[in-house]
Amino acid sequence: MPGRGSIAATFRRQLVGGLCVWLTLAVPAYADEERLGVRSAAIETAQGVLLLNAEFDIVLPDGARRAIRDGVELTLDIDLRLYRERSFWLDDSVASLAQRYEVSFHALTERYIVRNLNSDAQSTYATLDEALDQLRSIHSLPVLDRSLLDPDERYEARLRAIIDVHTLPGSLRVVLFWTDDWEQHSDWYEWPLKP
């Protein structure tokens, strides 16, 4: 007859084995696939104002899509930073812009809402993919007055996108911690900027 110590050890092994199997199944097969990224970005000047144009790759896993449909709000942050390049010292930060968007599902109308959290402007879409298409492309977003940049200096722009996990309720953050479906940061996209 096995002792209590061996039963407890067997139970721990089975528990750990079951947890490993669950984690293997819970992590999407495309975990290495880029889900959030900056495809292209450029800054143009119009009437003395620098304007950002950018294209993003946004791929949401099925669990995130279901959660939005069930009432979870997803926040997308667009983070733009401008630096003055210096030869013998760290680059000098000149300006930064944080643009925030929220995607939610309105159960009564069965439409997806994209809201600009900076301006409170919003639009609605029949499908989540249509709503995400709205976020995948930014056109003519005002960044900075061109007169604030020295035409004799060299500048660099850096852009990234972040899906904000902190907008989720605490209990969902604990569950989704294991799958890492919600905390997504794109790599920085960098390019030279000529004022």
Task: Describe the 3D structure.
This protein is an alpha+beta fold. The chain has two domains: 1-33; 34-193, Immunoglobulin-like (Sandwich). Helices cover 24% and strands 43% of the residues. The chain is built from four helices and ten strands, in the order αββαββββαββαββ. The chain has helices at 4-26, 62-69, 128-136, 170-176, and strands spanning 36-46, 49-58, 74-84, 92-106, 111-116, 122-125, 137-145, 155-164, 184-185, 189-193. β4 and β5 (111-116) form a beta hairpin. It is elongated. Mean pLDDT is 80; it is low at 14-33 and 177-181.
Summarize the entry for a quick read.
The chain is α+β, with helices and mostly antiparallel strands. The protein folds into two domains: 1-33; 34-193, Immunoglobulin-like, CATH 2.60.40. Helices cover 24% and strands 43% of the residues.
Based on the model shown, name its key terms.
2 domains; alpha+beta; 10 strands; Immunoglobulin-like; 24% helix; single chain; seven-stranded antiparallel β-sheet
